[in-house]
């Protein structure tokens, strides 16, 4: 296939690109490095089957020619993190919603055969049901979650109105080599590994008993590829590990001292995907346990040597607007 990946220099995107190239596909990557990093593609960049374009996905007329002859589109480009989305909601809407519209329009005009949207489990907010199924009413708690959900609904609307063959996958707490090194939320592994390298304690939110559905990146990539190769259209499916793990278990496996910081408003005590639908429709199931995944992270720990090192004090300053705005509700 001839495949286009937006956000292909990002954490998940770069793993997807490597897998696509390994499987023999021709890959076109669009990325502006706002979230992604050039070094994420260093193992793939010299492959003759890879073409890279440094562009903003919001610029429809710029990206439109790049979709010519494309079979599959994987739309992963987005701005991430909670605090910047609270402070810069316009920028997040511009990239995560308007950028999605531009990519959809370019894909529609090119007549692509498959369109895969990378959605976020943050759309569920603080759900009442665990494990959480796809029909749970959305309740995004902050602009990042809201714009990712609106982007998903936009993609599904293009499917209903224009017949674009869209499938959306809602990712739960993805981790693995190259996970993001910025932000005080959503990149807990990057935060903890940088702290471990610096000999500093892990900054655990609350008492650490809150649980997360940590899902290894190669399992997410496999779900994306299965969805692309399927005939499904208009489906929304969770992608999770099949388990939910206390943050304290993560700390135990990483090994190191802990300092506790205040619990944050709008954060669920648990994330846990109901994966019944994707198991049934795609015969997909996760392969990497938390223990094996963390072992792989520790083998690749040097990646985080250049990452920002967060402390309790710096996190307090960085998240002040989060507590001020979301804590008043």
Structure description:
There is one protein chain. The chain has about 325 residues and is α/β, with parallel strands linked by helices. It folds into 2 domains: about 1-175 and about 215-240, 3-Layer(aba) Sandwich (Rossmann fold); about 180-210 and about 240-270 and about 290-325, UDP-galactose 4-epimerase, domain 1 (Alpha-Beta Complex). The chain is about 40% helix and about 15% strand. It has a 7-stranded parallel beta sheet with strand order 3-2-1-4-5-6-11, with helices on both faces. It has a two-stranded parallel ribbon with strand order 7-10. Helix 1 packs across helix 7. The longest helix is centred in the first third of the chain and has 22 residues, at about 90-110. The mean pLDDT is about 95.
Keywords:
329 residues, alpha/beta, UDP-galactose 4-epimerase, domain 1, 39% helix
The dominant shape is globular
Give the CATH superfamily of the largest domain. NAD(P)-binding Rossmann-like Domain
Q: What would you call the structural class?
A: alpha/beta
Number of helices: 12
**Spatial strand sequence of the major β-sheet:** 3-2-1-4-5-6-11
Query: CATH topology of the largest domain, which one?
Result: Rossmann fold
Strand-residue proportion: 15-25%
Low-confidence stretches: none
Largest sheet, strands/sense/barrel: 7 strands, parallel
- Helical amount: 25-40%
**CATH class label of the largest domain:** Alpha Beta
Mean pLDDT: 95
Radius of gyration: 19 Å
SSE sequence, one letter per element: EHEEHEHHEHEEHEEEHEEHEHHHH
Number of domains: 2
Number-wise, the strands total 13
CATH architecture of the largest domain: 3-Layer(aba) Sandwich
């Amino acid at each position: 296939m001839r495949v286009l990946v937006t956000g292909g220099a990002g954490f998940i995107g770069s793993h997807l690109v490597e897998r696509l190239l390994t499987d023999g596909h021709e890959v076109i990557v669009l990325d502006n490095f706002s979230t992604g990093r050039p070094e994420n593609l260093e193992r793939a960049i010299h492959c003759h089957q890879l073409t890279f374009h440094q562009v903003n996905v919001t610029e429809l007329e710029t990206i439109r020619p790049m979709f010519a002859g494309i079979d599959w589109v994987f739309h992963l480009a987005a701005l991430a993190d909670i605090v910047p989305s609270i402070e810069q909601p316009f920028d997040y809407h511009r990239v995560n919603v308007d950028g999605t519209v531009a990519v959809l329009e370019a894909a529609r005009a090119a007549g692509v055969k498959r369109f895969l949207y990378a959605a976020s489990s943050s759309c569920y907010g603080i759900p009442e049901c665990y494990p959480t199924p796809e029909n749970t009413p959305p309740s995004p708690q902050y602009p990042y979650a809201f714009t990712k959900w609106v982007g998903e609904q936009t993609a599904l609307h293009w499917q209903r109105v224009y017949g674009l063959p869209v499938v959306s996958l809602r990712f739960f707490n993805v981790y693995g080599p190259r996970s993001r090194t910025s932000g005080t939320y959503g990149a807990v592994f990057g935060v903890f590994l940088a702290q471990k390298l610096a000999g500093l304690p892990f900054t655990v939110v609350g008492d650490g008993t809150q649980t997360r559905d940590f899902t290894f990146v190669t399992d997410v990539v496999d779900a994306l590829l299965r969805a692309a190769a399927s005939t499904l259209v208009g489906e929304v499916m969770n992608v999770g590990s099949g388990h939910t793990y206390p943050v304290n278990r993560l700390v135990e496996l990483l090994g190191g001292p802990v300092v506790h910081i205040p619990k944050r408003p709008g954060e669920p005590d648990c994330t846990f995907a109901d994966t019944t639908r994707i198991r049934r429709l795609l015969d997909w199931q996760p392969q990497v346990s938390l223990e094996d995944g963390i072992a792989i992270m520790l083998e690749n720990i040097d990646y985080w040597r250049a990452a920002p090192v967060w402390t309790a004090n710096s996190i307090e300053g960085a998240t002040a607007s989060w507590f001020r705005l979301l804590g008043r509700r």
